[in-house]
Amino acid sequence: MEDAASREVCYAQLSFLDKRSDAIESIPYHFYYSFKCYGVGECPGHKMSIVDWELGQAYRSWRSRYKNEETLLEKIRERWLCLMCSSRNDVYFYVGNMKRFRRNFMVLGTFYPPL
Predict the structure, then answer these.
(1) Residue 80 in this model has a pLDDT that exceeds 70
(2) For 50, which DSSP code?
(3) Which of 78, 82, 101 has the alpha carbon at shortest distance from 91?
(4) Residue 17 and residue 36: Cα distance in Å, rounded?
(5) Considering the domain boundaries, does residue 98 fall inside one?
(6) Which of 7, 39, 56, 77 has its CA 20 to 30 A from that of 24?
(7) 14 occurs within a structural domain
């Protein structure tokens, strides 16, 4: 597990003017999508970490609206699973990896236009 100091360095943001600004507050959860590839019968399934900035920001801003942690997590689940990944949408994941972990992909964002 990484310590607070290394996390602070990782989350620290620089502006275009090269001035240091506040670090982004980390959230105490990791979120994942588990899915199988459509039309691929032998797909073993995938579990990808969601590193979408919007999800983290939703957690940080919605916790003032939803004081109960269970309710907050349910609202996130509703948005990222029920709304975005609805059968009424054509769901696409923007995925990426890191140089150190080239075979491990993560979801950077979700595109979900209606069918």
Answers:
(1) yes
(2) B
(3) 82
(4) 44
(5) yes
(6) 77
(7) no
pLDDT higher than threshold 90 for residue 8: no
Expressed as residue numbers, the domain containing 82 is 29-111
CA distances from 110 to 10, 13, 20, 84, 101 (A): 24, 23, 30, 8, 21
Please report whether residue 86 resides in a domain.
Answer: yes
Secondary structure (DSSP) of 64-99:
TT--SHHHHHHHHHIIIIIITT-TTB--EEEEEEET
Mind listing the pLDDT tens digit for each residue in 50-73? Answer: 999 999 999 999 999 999 999 999
85 found inside a domain:
yes
Residues 6+ apart with CB under 8 A from 93: 33, 48, 107, 108, 109, 110, 111
> Taking a C-beta distance cutoff of 8 angstroms, is the pair 43, 37 a contact?
yes
pLDDT at 1: 46
**pTM score:** 0.73
Domain count of the fold of the chain:
1
What mean pLDDT, rounded, does the chain reach? 86
